[in-house]
Amino acid sequence: MESKLEDAINEWHASVNAGDLPRSAAAVGDPVVVLGPKGAGPITPDQFADWVDRSGIRLVPRSWHPISERLMVVEEDATWPDNRTPTRVATVFRVVGAKVTAALRLPDLKSALELAYICREMAATE
Predict the structure, then answer these.
(1) How far apart are alpha carbons 9 and 1 in whole angstroms?
(2) Are 90 and 111 within 8 A, CB to CB?
(3) Considering just the CA atoms, what is the radius of gyration of the chain in Å?
(4) What's the pTM?
(5) By the 8 A CB rule, do 121 and 111 touch?
(6) DSSP alpha helix (H) spans, 2-124
(7) Is the dihedral of CA 106, 21, 80, 65 positive or negative?
(8) Residue 81 · residue 96 · CB < 8 Å
């Protein structure tokens, strides 16, 4: 049986990869914190859907690394419309309820795991 964490991340991937904008907006919290090569910060679900549309990104999960009940790192192969050659990346996901509330994309698994462990320790000391 999959956990709520995995279910939410699977829905996030399915909606993004389908380019389904209403479904993508529904898969994330309000706000959702994002990190990528063009910046970081909180955005609304509609802004997230706009990013899905503009980027045309597709992310195929390759490995899953549980960090806590709310945090998971997923190593992924990313492709874009102008570059179909997969690029390996890793995303730190935070889930609250059934929604992704953070998607922090990093260039490699090591960096994502390091950030996820820091996030876990910060949350433990709140």
Answers:
(1) 14
(2) yes
(3) 13
(4) 0.95
(5) no
(6) 4-18, 21-26, 45-55, 109-124
(7) positive
(8) no
Residue 126 and residue 122: Cα distance in Å, rounded? 7
Quote the strand ranges of 57-125, DSSP E: 58-66, 71-80, 83-96, 99-106
Element (H, E) at 108: none
Query: Closest Cα partner for 13 from 64, 54, 47?
Result: 64
The amino acid at 61: P
Given a contact cutoff of 8 angstroms between Cβ atoms, the answer to whether 96 and 5 are in contact is no
Q: Using CA of residue 59, residue 60, residue 63, residue 64, what is the dihedral sign?
A: positive
Residue type, 98: A
Instruction: From 1, 100, 113, 84, select the one nearest 45 (Cα to Cα).
Output: 100
For residue 33, which amino acid is it?
V
pLDDT in tens, the chain (126 residues): 468 999 999 999 999 999 999 999 999 999 999 999 888 999 999 999 999 999 999 999 999 999 999 999 999 999 999 998 999 999 999 999 999 999 999 999 999 999 999 999 999 998
